[in-house]
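haha ok so turns out i had the wrong file open the whole time. this is the CORRECT one, sorry everyone. sequence first:
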Amino acid sequence: MTAGPMNRLVGREKLLVQLEREVLRGSTLMLLGPLGIGKSSILAALASRVRERNRPCGLAPDTRCLGDITAALASAYPDIDASSLTQRRLRSCLRLAVEERPGVLLLDHISTAGTATKGFLRSLRGTGLGVLLAADVENRRDHVATRALHLAYMETEVPPLARPTMAAILDARLQRQALPHPLQEEDRRSLLLLAKGNPGRLVSFVDLLVDGRFWREGRVSTSSVNGAALELVLRRYLALDTCP
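then structure:
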């Protein structure tokens, strides 16, 4: 299937195809990567692709508890009247619906999982439901903690984007922002280097540069903009702010 304008993700087409293949065959896997690398965008694009195939698909944008998972799965099977059921009964009905018509469950920003959450996800294995969980992993310690949740046997790391793709993202973002000074080529290279293939961080750089405080005599203050961008990415992807 050719990706349409609503489900195409620049630089991630191959990864999207791989993930789609796995979830449609009923696999459970974990998507790992730092904040801003594009996991949420990947999940949104994947949801669009799955729904285009007329397969049930639920997406939890922020997975904090079992209720978030239940709500996401219920959205994939709207024929079930959730308002008339207890949460436990609802989950039982959802499992039956999954067995009858397997779909896909996408869980973003998962960082913890209690006994009830693990039990429910285990109960869905073997039903044909594909599950993709995305976790924010900044370092090896985060990776170890995520793996210790034992939520998936398969892991996929979101790689940094290639330099030409990042350059294209930078140019597109620059066209949308009115900067107080023209961006010098040396500063452009510095921003691409600082972003390290992370599109969320690169977009934050440009958004911050509309503020004159991040300029010194017509040049970008890369050290200050880098620190501020990390904070901005955290606010956006931890639901403390709205990503444009």
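The first strand starts at residue 28 and ends at 33.
again sry for the mixup
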